[in-house]
């Protein structure tokens, strides 16, 4: 089996690596990630010009890629550079919009002309869509939304939000232009928002979009897992470099066998994570593919936390200071576990899908 | 006018180079390889000349292992029109020497008849800085090395060269060989739509034997070693102490 990237993916990865390496240092990233609108517009335009946003959607729907592999290549590089640009929110919104024939809006997003986010989660909801409480009702030919949405990734500064809400037919999708949002920075940087809807008028895109929504969310999870692999690799490089430089008791830390073993264990975790992401990418869209996604998200959640803790432990105090990039990688890895369902949610989903398969 | 741009596959400039344990060379196993940065600048300049209407076609050439195809795809994704890969060795550790490269390039120039050859001033792996000059001698063409500005006007080109102590502007007759320096331009990133277009651009594969050039090495690498480790610094208390220490070290 050949696990190497194809020539195109290698070129895409190189381009993104160089673009982010040249333009996105850690100081710039931290300033952008914690100051509204929690990203840099010129970087976003640059990513659009490179066709990176287009890589999230298939050619027939106006993009330049759209496969799970394309998405994992992009997000692994974003993770390596700890990029706070709102690519996850854009990916989720783009996928549901392109599934529902919104070609013009998709084109605008791909070109960087406008930006969108997807509102799915609610304060009382885990990753199970059936627990959604927000509702959409048609009154006099206008759809009215009620309820509260939370954790809308990449929403601050976006031009529109696609909202998932319960309809009589299932989980519908609604288009909200210039939404009034409650914006904040996430604990690791990057924008997130809440949305309160009280008889809010919206355009209906679909009355039952559960399949499309689940597929978009699963792709988002694959993206987060790939991002984590990139972030873990970068954190591992930082840690090993530090061990080779830092001297204690007259010798470098890297000469202590106990620390070598811990560094090797970290590398093993990364390789396991990389493999499970490849498996989730390969199985995406196949029957039972959602199980591979949940397995990956669960393992990445656990491994990300372990990597963060081990890295800080091996660095000592400096490993958790604001000035040291390692601390921000550690925070990001812990945060990735909580986005689009944490390790427990995905263990439960795995059990539920496994049980369903047995019954079927 | 056609422009020919030779590009070399070298160890990526971000990679920390490791010397092989036996000192026979640099360890290239599982190491990221990229286009030589100076060659990237040459490709960018050719594209800019094409955008300015002074060049009609850009042909990228790479001589080395089969994997150099990736380097050529990068050139095509940046904007070159077609590519020629000359497979001269199977061994990734083998470096084709400048004279053999220049001879193969001469044969390609004879075939392609470009009006301009734009190449990097040197490759960052062996730092030879020789291929452009050798090609110029073999062809009997004008040469302008270390270019930091290129202005092609009809049958001549005005080239600003980076020389010790300043800049020198020369005028060369076309056809010419121009070797480019770091400050000539900022190479563009290959965008995803262009990466996809590059797949459809022609890439011809040849061998060194097709051009009748013997690529066997004439130089022997005796030893390769890491540079000496930088000694630890010291903190001095005053300017006087600093001067004293510098005097002790024989620096002033």
Please write the string of helix (H) and strand (E) elements of chain A. HHHHHHEEEEEEEHEEHHHH
State the distance separating the first and last CA atoms of chain A. Answer: 32 Å
Could you name the ranges of chain B where pLDDT drops below 50 across 5 or more consecutive residues?
Answer: none
Q: What is the gyration radius of chain A calculated from CA atoms? A: 21 Å
Q: Major sheet of chain B: order of its strands?
A: 9-8-7-10-6-1-4-5-11
CATH hierarchy class name of chain B: Alpha Beta
Q: Helicity of chain B, in percent?
A: 25-40%
CATH superfamily of the largest domain in chain A: Butyryl-CoA Dehydrogenase, subunit A, domain 3
Q: How far apart are the first and last residues' alpha carbons of chain B, in Å?
A: 55 Å
Protein name (chain B): Electron transfer flavoprotein subunit beta
Keywords (chain B): Electron transport, Transport
InterPro entries (chain B): ET-Flavoprotein_bsu_CS, ETF_a/b_N, ETF_b, ETF_beta_N, Rossmann-like_a/b/a_fold
GO molecular function (chain B): electron transfer activity
Could you explain how this protein is built, in words?
The complex is a heterodimer of chains A (360) and B (252). In chain A, the strands form two sheets. In chain A, strands 1, 2, 3, 4, 5, 6 and 7 form a seven-stranded mixed beta sheet that branches. In chain A, strands 8-9 form a two-stranded antiparallel sheet. In chain A, a hairpin with a 2-residue loop joins strand 2 (135-139) and strand 3. The relative contact order of chain A is 0.11. Chain A folds into three domains: 7-114, Butyryl-Coa Dehydrogenase, subunit A, domain 1; 117-208, Butyryl-CoA Dehydrogenase, subunit A, domain 2, CATH 2.40.110.10; 212-359, Butyryl-CoA Dehydrogenase, subunit A, domain 3. Chain A is α+β, with helices and mostly antiparallel strands and 360 residues long. Chain A is 52% helix and 17% strand. The model of chain A has no long low-confidence stretch (mean pLDDT 94). With 252 residues, chain B is of the alpha/beta class. Chain B has a single domain (2-249), classed as HUPs (Rossmann fold). Chain B has helices spanning 37-51, 68-78, 98-112, 131-139, 192-198, 239-248; strands spanning 2-6, 9-11, 33-35, 57-64, 82-87, 116-120, 142-153, 156-163, 166-173, 176-180, 203-207. In chain B, the strands form two sheets. Chain B has a nine-stranded mixed beta sheet with strand order 9-8-7-10-6-1-4-5-11, with helices on both faces. In chain B, strands 2-3 form a two-stranded antiparallel ribbon. In chain B, helix 3 (98-112) crosses helix 4. Chain B is globular and about 65 Å long. Chain B starts with a strand and ends with a helix. The interface between A and B is medium-sized, with 18 and 17 residues. Chain B: InterPro entries: ET-Flavoprotein_bsu_CS, ETF_a/b_N, ETF_b, ETF_beta_N, Rossmann-like_a/b/a_fold.
């Amino acid at each position: 089996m050949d696990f190497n990237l194809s020539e195109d993916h290698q070129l895409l990865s190189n381009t993104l690596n160089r673009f982010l390496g040249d333009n996105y240092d850690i100081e710039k990233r931290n300033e952008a990630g914690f100051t509204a609108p929690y990203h840099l517009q010129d970087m976003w335009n640059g990513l659009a010009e490179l066709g990176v946003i287009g890589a999230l959607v298939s050619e027939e729907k106006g993009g330049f890629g759209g496969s799970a592999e394309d998405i994992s290549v992009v997000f692994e590089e974003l993770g390596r550079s700890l990029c706070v640009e709102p690519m996850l929110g854009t990916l989720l919104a783009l996928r549901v919009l392109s599934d529902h024939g919104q070609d013009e809006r998709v084109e605008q997003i791909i070109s960087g002309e406008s930006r969108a986010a997807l509102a799915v989660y609610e304060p009382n909801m885990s990753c199970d869509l059936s627990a959604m409480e927000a509702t959409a009702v048609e009154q006099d030919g206008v759809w009215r939304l009620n309820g509260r949405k939370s954790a809308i990734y990449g929403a601050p500064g976006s031009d529109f939000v696609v909202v998932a809400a319960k309809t009589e037919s299932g989980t519908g999708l609604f288009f909200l232009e210039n939404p009034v949002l409650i914006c904040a920075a996430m604990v690791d940087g990057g924008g997130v928002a809440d949305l309160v809807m009280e008889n809010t008028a919206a355009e209906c895109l679909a009355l039952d979009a559960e399949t499309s929504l689940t597929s978009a969310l699963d792709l988002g999870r694959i993206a987060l897992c790939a991002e984590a692999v990139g972030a873990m690799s970068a954190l591992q490089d930082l840690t090993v470099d530090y061990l080779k430089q830092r001297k204690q008791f007259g010798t470098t830390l890297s000469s202590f066998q106990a620390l070598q073993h811990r560094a090797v264990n970290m590398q093993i975790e990364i390789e396991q994570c990389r493999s499970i992401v490849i498996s989730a990418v390969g199985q995406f869209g196949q029957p039972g593919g959602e199980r591979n996604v949940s397995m990956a998200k669960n393992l990445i959640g656990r491994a990300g936390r372990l990597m963060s803790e081990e890295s800080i432990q091996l660095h000592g105090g400096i490993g958790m200071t604001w000035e040291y990039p390692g601390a921000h990688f550690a925070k990001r890895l812990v945060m990735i576990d909580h986005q689009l369902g944490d390790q427990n949610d995905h263990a439960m989903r795995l059990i539920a899908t496994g049980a369903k398969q047995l019954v079927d | 006018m056609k422009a020919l741009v030779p590009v070399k596959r070298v160890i990526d400039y971000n990679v920390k180079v490791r010397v092989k344990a036996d000192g026979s060379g640099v360890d290239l196993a599982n190491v990221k390889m990229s286009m030589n940065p100076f060659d990237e600048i040459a490709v960018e300049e050719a594209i800019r000349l094409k955008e300015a209407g002074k060049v009609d076609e850009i042909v990228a050439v790479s001589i080395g292992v089969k994997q150099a195809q990736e380097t050529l795809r990068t050139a095509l994704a940046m904007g070159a029109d077609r590519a020629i890969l000359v497979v001269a060795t199977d061994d990734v550790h083998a470096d084709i020497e400048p004279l053999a490269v220049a001879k193969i390039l001469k044969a390609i120039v004879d075939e392609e008849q470009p009006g301009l050859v734009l190449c990097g001033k040197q490759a960052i792996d062996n730092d030879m800085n020789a291929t452009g000059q050798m090609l110029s001698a073999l062809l009997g063409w004008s040469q302008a090395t270390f270019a930091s500005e290129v202005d092609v006007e009809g049958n001549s080109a005005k080239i600003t060269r980076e020389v010790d102590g300043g800049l020198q502007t020369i005028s060369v007759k076309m056809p010419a060989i121009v070797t480019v320096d770091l400050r000539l331009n900022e190479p563009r990133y290959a965008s995803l739509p262009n990466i996809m277009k590059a797949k459809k651009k022609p890439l011809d594969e040849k061998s060194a034997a097709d051009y009748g050039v013997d690529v066997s090495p004439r130089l022997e690498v005796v030893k390769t070693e890491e540079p000496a480790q930088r000694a630890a610094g010291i903190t001095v208390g005053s300017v006087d102490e600093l001067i004293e220490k510098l005097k002790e070290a024989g620096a002033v």
